[in-house]
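Quick one, C-alpha cells below. Sequence please?
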C-alpha cells in the first residue's frame, strides 16, 4: 500500500486542459495521490496552464508566487508542477525564474508523471519533460478512475497542422494525431459505466480526426459518431473544436442521421473578411463558411451555432471588420466568443506589419460583442414556450431545484427531485435569463 497523498490541480485554458487535468489525476492515483479541492497543505500541486492569449506567462509566474508561499508553509514538502501549454512553450525559463518549481511537463508527457514525481522527490531533483515523446501517452494511461459525472470529455485527436497566423497551438500541442477508433470506443464504454450520459469528443481540430478503424481501414469523424451513437446507454454526443475546412459531406450528413448528436455546433470562423481570412492562413473564405452553415441547417434544421472571432488581426481595416459584422448578421449565432488579437511570440502574425492600434481593437470588440449578445439573448428568448429534452447534471442553487443542459448547452433550472440527475426529461421552457433558462418538468423519461 502506498501512503495516501493529497493532490490539487489548477486548470486554465480549454476543454482539452480540463480533460488532461483529469487524466493527470488518474495517472497519479496508483501511486497514492487523491484529488483535494484546495491547494493548502497538499502534497502536490499541478498548475495546468494555457498560452493562447495575453500575458499568459506573466499570469503563470504570479500564480506561482502564491503557490510558493503555500509550499513553504508545508516545509517545502509540497511538489510543485507546471503543466500545459505555457510549460511546453517556456520550459527551462520556468525553472530559471521560479526555482522552487519541481517539475515542468508538456501536454504530451503526463503519462510519465509517476516517474517524474519519483525523480523530483530525490533531494533537489528538478525535472523538465517538454519533448514530444515517441510513445503515445494514451497507450500508457490507466483507465479513468475519477468519474467525470453525467457529462464527460473524451480526447480523440490532439495537435494541429493548420498554423493559423496568430495561434500558438501547433507549437505547444505538436502535430495532428488521431487516436484509433477501438481505443476511443473502449474509453467511451468505460465513461458510460461510470455514469456518463453525454460525451463531448475533444480535439484541437476534432473534425480532422481520421483514425484507424477496427478492420484496419480509416474512419472519419462522421463514421466514428455513428459507432458511438450505437453503444450502451449513451444519450448525447457533441464534438469540439472544429475547423470549417474539415466539415466533410459524411460529417454533415451525420448531423441529419444521429438524433443523439446535439444540434449545437461550435464552428470558429475568426473573421468575415476574405482578405483577413487569407492573412490568417485559414484557407477558406467567408462564403465557404456560410455554405457549410447552410448545408448543416439543411441536414438538421434545428441546429444552432457558436463561433470564435478575433478583432484587430494585423492588417484589419474598418471595411474588414464590417465584413465580420455582416457575417454575424447573416449566420445569427446562438452564442460566441470574441477576442482582441493578441500577438503571440513566435507566431507569424506577431512579427507582421500593420498592427492595429489598441483603441481600434477595443472599439471593434465592443461593437461585435454587443451584436453577439443581442443574438444570444434573442436565441434564448425564442426558447421560451418550447419543449426540449434536458439532461439533468446536478442540484441547483435553491432547495428542490435541479439543473440540466438543453440541447444547445444552456443551463436549465427545474423544480424536481435529485433522483432525476443522470436522466433526460422533456421540459417546457418558461423563462430566459442572461445565462440560463428556467423550465417546468413535462414528463419523466427515465433513461438511466
Ligand atoms: N482549434 C480551434 C481554436 C483554438 S484556440 C480553431 O481552430 O478554431 C481558441 C480561440 O482562441 C481561437 O478560435 C481564436 O479565436 C482565439 N485565439 C487564438 N489565438 C489568438 C490570439 N493570438 N489572439 C486572440 N485570440 C486568439
Ligand atoms: Fe490554432 Fe488555427 Fe490550429 Fe485552431 S486551426 S488550433 S486556431 S492554428
Ligand atoms: Fe490554451 Fe493550450 Fe488549450 S494554449 S487553449 S491550453 S491547447
Amino acid at each position: 500500500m502506498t501512503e495516501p497523498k493529497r493532490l490539487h490541480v489548477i486548470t486554465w485554458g480549454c476543454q482539452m486542459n480540463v480533460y488532461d487535468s483529469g487524466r493527470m489525476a488518474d495517472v497519479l492515483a496508483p501511486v497514492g495521490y487523491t484529488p483535494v479541492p484546495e491547494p493548502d497543505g497538499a502534497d502536490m500541486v499541478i498548475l495546468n496552464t494555457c498560452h493562447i492569449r495575453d500575458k499568459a506567462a506573466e499570469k503563470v509566474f504570479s500564480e506561482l508566487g502564491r503557490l510558493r508561499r503555500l509550499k513553504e508553509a508545508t516545509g517545502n514538502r509540497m511538489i510543485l508542477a507546471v503543466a500545459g501549454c505555457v510549460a511546453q512553450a517556456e520550459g527551462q525559463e520556468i525553472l530559471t525564474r521560479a526555482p522552487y518549481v519541481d517539475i515542468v511537463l508538456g501536454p504530451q508527457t503526463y503519462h510519465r508523471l509517476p516517474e517524474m514525481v519519483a525523480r523530483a522527490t530525490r533531494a533537489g531533483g528538478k525535472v523538465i519533460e517538454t519533448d514530444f515523446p515517441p510513445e503515445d501517452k494514451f497507450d500508457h494511461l490507466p483507465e479513468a478512475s475519477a468519474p467525470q459525472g453525467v457529462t464527460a470529455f473524451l480526447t480523440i485527436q490532439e495537435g494541429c497542422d493548420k498554423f493559423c497566423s496568430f495561434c500558438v497551438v501547433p507549437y505547444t500541442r505538436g502535430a495532428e494525431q488521431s487516436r484509433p477508433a477501438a481505443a476511443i470506443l473502449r474509453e467511451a464504454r468505460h465513461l458510460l459505466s461510470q455514469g456518463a450520459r453525454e460525451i463531448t469528443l475533444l480535439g484541437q481540430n476534432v473534425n480532422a480526426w481520421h483514425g484507424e478503424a477496427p478492420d484496419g481501414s480509416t474512419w472519419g469523424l462522421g463514421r466514428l459518431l455513428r459507432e458511438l451513437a450505437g453503444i450502451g446507454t449513451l444519450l448525447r454526443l457533441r464534438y469540439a473544436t472544429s475547423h470549417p475546412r474539415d466539415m466533410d459531406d459524411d460529417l454533415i450528413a451525420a448531423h441529419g442521421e444521429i438524433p443523439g448528436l446535439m444540434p449545437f455546433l461550435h464552428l470558429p470562423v475568426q473573421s468575415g473578411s476574405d482578405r483577413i481570412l487569407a492573412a490568417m492562413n485559414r484557407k477558406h473564405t467567408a462564403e465557404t463558411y456560410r455554405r457549410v452553415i447552410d448545408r448543416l441547417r439543411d441536414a438538421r434544421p434545428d441546429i444552432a451555432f457558436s463561433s470564435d472571432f478575433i478583432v484587430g488581426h494585423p492588417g484589419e481595416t474598418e471595411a474588414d471588420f464590417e465584413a465580420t459584422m455582416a457575417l454575424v448578421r447573416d449566420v445569427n449565432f446562438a452564442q460566441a466568443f470574441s477576442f482582441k488579437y493578441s500577438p503571440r511570440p513566435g507566431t507569424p502574425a506577431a512579427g507582421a506589419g500593420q498592427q492595429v492600434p489598441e483603441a481600434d481593437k477595443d472599439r471593434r470588440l465592443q461593437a461585435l460583442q454587443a451584436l453577439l449578445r443581442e443574438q444570444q439573448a434573442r436565441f434564448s428568448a425564442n426558447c421560451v414556450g418550447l419543449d426540449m429534452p434536458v439532461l439533468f447534471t446536478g442540484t441547483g442553487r435553491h432547495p428542490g431545484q435541479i439543473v440540466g443542459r438543453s440541447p444547445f448547452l444552456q443551463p436549465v433550472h427545474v423544480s424536481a427531485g435529485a433522483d432525476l440527475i443522470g436522466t433526460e426529461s422533456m421540459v417546457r421552457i418558461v423563462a430566459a435569463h442572461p445565462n440560463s433558462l428556467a423550465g417546468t418538468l413535462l414528463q419523466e423519461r427515465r433513461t438511466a
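The first strand starts at residue 5 and ends at 11. The two ends are 35 Å apart (CA to CA).
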